[in-house]
Each structure stands twice: as C-alpha cells, then as structure tokens.
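Batch job 17 of 40 flagged for manual review because the log was empty.
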Amino acid sequence: MSAVTCIEDLRVLYKRRVPRMFYDYTESGSWTETTFRDNVEAFTRHKLRQRVMVDMSDRRISSTMLDEPVAMPVALAPVGLSGMQCADGEIKAARAAERFGVPYCLSTLSICSIEDVARDASRPFWFQLYVMRDRGFIERLIARAKAAECSALVLTVDLQILGQRHKDIKNGLSAPPKPTLTNLINIATKPRWAIQMLTTSRRNFGNIVGHIDEAVDLSSLSKWTASQFDPRLSWDDVKWIKDLWGGKLVIKGIIDVEDARMAVQSGADALVVSNHGGRQLDGAPATIDVLGSIVDAVGDEIEVWLDGGIRSGQDVFKALALGARGTLIGRAYIYGLGAMGETGVHRTLEIIANELDLTMAFCGLRNIAQVSADVLWNPT
C-alpha cells in the first residue's frame, strides 16, 4: 500500500474495502446532492494570505471546546452505523480520538451501545441525541448517557423528518445488510470487512435493541426506527431535555441566524452550524457560507462550531478564520475507519493536525488562538 498522505487517499482505500451500501451511506447526500457537494467545494472559494519572513517556530494548535482541553479544535462528529463501516467501529473511533486528544461523539443510531463505548473509554465522550416520539425511551437514553458519565449531550435538531437519500433507498440500507444476492456478491469482494464483522456480535443498533419491546428482529427494528423521528419537535422540548440532562448541551443542525438566536435562548452551551452533511434539505447553503453571519449574530453569547465539508486541516483553519470556535469532522474520519480501523481514524487526525499546523505557519501565525479574518485574502 502506498503512503497515506491526505484524506483523499483514505477515501480511495475506504471505497475498496467497505461494502457498497455503507460507502454510499457515507459518500452521498439527499436528492441531487447539490448541498453535499457544495459543502466541500465552498471552502475553495475562501483564499488565504501567505506571509513570509515571520517567526514560525514553537507553534501551537491546541485549544478548548466546552472548556475541555483539546489537541486541536476538532471533534469527531456523531455518525450513525459507524460499526458497520468497521467491526466495533464506534469503540475504535473513540479510542483513536482519546489517544489523539480530541472529543468523540457517539450517535444515537450507533452499532456499539453507550455502555459498549464507556467500557472501553478511559475519559468521557459526548453523546448525540435524536428525539423520538417515544419520550420514555428518550428519558432512559439520557439516563444511560449520564450513567456512562458522558461530558456533553449533542442534540441534533435537523432530523424531524428524513431527507430522501436515493442511494440508501436503492441499496436497501440496513444493519446488518439483508442477505440479498446483490449484497452477498458485493460483500464477497470485501473479505477483510467480512472477516472482521464475523468476529463481533455487534451488528445492530446497540442503543435500541434490548431497550424497547417493539424491536425484536431486523424487520421490526427498521419499522420502529423509521417511524420514531418526531416531526413535532420544537424549542419547547429543548428545556425538557436540558432539565433531564443537567450538563453541557450542544445544539447541532443550525444554518439560519434566527435559529441560532433560538439556540442561545434555549440555554445551550454551543451550537453547530450544520446541514447534516447535505443529507436533509438539498439546495440549502454550504455551512461555511453561512458561518460568518451566524457568528456575527450570536458568537459573543455561545460557542459556534462548524460541521460539513471539512476534508483537510486547511478547511479547519478557514472555519476558525470565519469565526468558528471549533469544528466537527464526520466523513473524513469514517474514511479512515473503513480503510484502516482505529489506525485509520488516528491517521485522519494526524493528517488534519499537520495540515492545520502548516497552514497556520504559512499565514504567519504561531498560535491557533491568533486566527482571525485577517488571514483571509480579500482582493478588494
């Protein structure tokens, strides 16, 4: 295998090693996928000022997120079905993040459960919450996150209804994959993945199976999950969730200034500028394009983070220059997870950190806290 020097190298290797339905689950958006693509491409519209003849020694990219020290202002975003990209994927991603010194956020729709990850973690991780119609299940889920000593609750607010993702529908996405002829033929070409999956018993939604009576097999679980996203979710529910949780709360899924103001009013500690990776409203703006207006509106009152389209440390740097206090990466680390397991996630973080450090140096800075709009090139 040739040297892995960038995130694209990991993506190529990931595509070779993971079954098509799980690769497509990651590498796709809703409808025409315009927003999915623009999340990445929009970063190229922001240019940087290169500075020379300045002291570039003793550089520092460490920072804080929610007052937690982090090796760099990057966290691993919640990604559903990570444990189908690689056997025990959530555990491996959490370990890699812990080893590197950045936060890891576990999805409600993970394959490994909260308890699975907590048993393997030696430091607190974050838990991402989808609000379901079954509020009793949500209460129990929050209680489980508290028992696992999760240090923050990340409430995703942009999945009240599910965006239409053509590839997932055509592939018949499920966990575990249904034993159709097409799936079996494809899996036969991914022996590394198949052998690893045979070594684990974790092949279903660990936070759900065994915790609700309605889901006893693959069919009933799929029906329950699909019917449970709550279209009635409102800002009034945030107070209920905040009171139940009692700890640090992050609102994820904000791309509008008015919604950002509502997130501040809700008492959240941070908000994530996110369009769900282009998987919900196709035609919505790229997150980096709306970041500045949201920071201008609420950035003095709440930590503003960015999620969506980040494929390099330079993308992280541009987000910070536009006012973000932190960033989340999703697809970038899933490429690493599917390609090389825990080692691949750690390699993703090494690549991001190296690119962030070098970009900062080329722009004439030595400390990540110094990054501001001054590093952006303005042709006027």
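Reviewer: the log was empty due to a logging misconfiguration, but the result itself is present. The CA atoms of residues 88 and 112 lie 6 Å apart. Unflagging and moving on to job 18.
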